[in-house]
Amino acid sequence: xxxxxxxxxxxxxxxxxxxxxxxxxxxPARATASELHPFLAKRWHEHLATxxxxxxxxxxxxxxxxxxxxxxxxxxxxxxxxxxxxxxxSFMQKxxxxxxNVALGVLNPLGTGQGIRNHDLSAALATAINDWQIEKxxxxxxxxxxxxxxxxxxxxxxxxxxxxxxxxxxFVQVLLxxxxxxxxxxxxxxxxxxxxxxxxxxxxxxAFGFGGNPITASGWPSYYIExxxxxxxxxxxxxxxxxxxxxxxxxxxxxxxxxxxxxxxxPSLAWRLDKVWQKLRSEVPHVKRPPSEYIxxxxxxxxxxxxxxxxxxxxxxxxxxxxxxxxxFATDYPHWDFDEPSRVLPVGVSDANREAFYLGNxxxxxxxx
Amino acid sequence: MARHVIAPVSEMPPGTRKFLTVxxxxxxxxxxxxxxxxxxxxxxxxxxxxxxGPLIGLAQSTTPGExxxxxxxxxxxxxxxxxxxxxxxxQSYCDPRRFRVKAYAAHVEPGASVVKGPYVAETxxxxxxxxxxxxxx
Lengths: 369, 137
Fold this sequence. Notes:
The complex is a heterodimer.
Chain A: E1 3-6, E2 21-26, H1 42-51, H2 89-97, E3 102-107, H3 119-138, E4 144-149, H4 155-165, E5 171-179, H5 190-199, E6 203-209, H6 224-244, H7 247-250, E7 256-259, H8 266-280, H9 291-298, E8 299-302, H10 312-322, E9 327-328, H11 351-366
Parallel strand pairs in A: 2-3, 3-4, 4-5, 5-6, 6-7, 7-8, 8-9
Helix pairs in contact in A: 4-5
Chain B: E1 3-8, E2 16-22, E3 25-32, E4 35-40, E5 55-63, E6 66-77, E7 84-86, E8 103-104, E9 106-110, E10 131-136
């Protein structure tokens, strides 16, 4: 039913904005299952073939919910040479980086080994995926920068990986996922924040991951659409935990990026935190300032999937609360809920704010000249 | 409104689709069970090549618990965000107030009676006895 033949180029790039942008959420994929082998000890090749990699998620592999498109990705993003979407540098250049004039692209590899219950395997996969990012992507295209993937449940091991990569210009942040065994403010994760602060690297928290808990705060929902919407509540749990455990008091130079979980909820969470903190402050005396101040000072937000309220002034009011200097444009390429750069921002934004939104904030945060 | 020859019917059996550019506009023509449909190949949502998406049916529910699945093979689902459009009318099925894709009339005419468009016609090598697929736009 869906056999296709075609003539000529289909993608109309005439509508793409021509000024340079930063794309702060790109997902590079492996073309084959064995692509990581050169970066992994032989011991792990056999282990993976024999035992697989079991996440904090029952005795199964793969994502907890089915995806709406193949590999959760755009159907037009399969590279011509084969392999899944996002697995070819040359096709990423042709489909994303060149036509959209991406001056800075931040890679956030997923499905890497974070949330794997075998901690030695998780650590080996994290190191392998970091070497792979350099070898396959960042050393081949200077626009691309990697994220340091870490064994998220083992703080000291994660910190060692961060320190090993500190100062390496191939990497611009540390990558965590939002679902972990415990809320992200817990002290088992503090070595990660300590090492990130020491290295001067922001910590990005991307939606998804495996922590063994239901994906919502009250159990397993029926539908993928609920998982998609549930990312915001998962991220809110992580952010509240980070603030209330005093992470930013302990690591005052730490910067964090909330990736792919929306930002429209930020003001309401902060207002609620402030309101309750006024009454229960004595329970958490290490939280010295209103929670909203930590959020405003320490948190950056990627835009995709961009909020799209009926009235654009509501979007602008939300951004005003967050700060135009805290948003980082992202497409989520090659995933299916890709945001097209020229279509996300309504009219009525000043040139300075537009430049900050699309490029300036990202360059400043990630230290790119 | 000009008529453009797209292909000989014999080259577009049921279940196929053809992509091309006419007057600098990307379009796609589908043969669904012997009926031809043409659509602008640009999703009104974010501009994806809409017609590269799969053809599915329309799942609707008048009452929770009852699902009707109709228009089998007549709904094109965008390869990016999954917006659904009726291939007959261009009507969007998620938010009909906001999005409608441009639909072009496509039908079959005898080969000798049509004006050949500049872009596609030159690639045809079929004799005038055959029937051609024609798009009006």
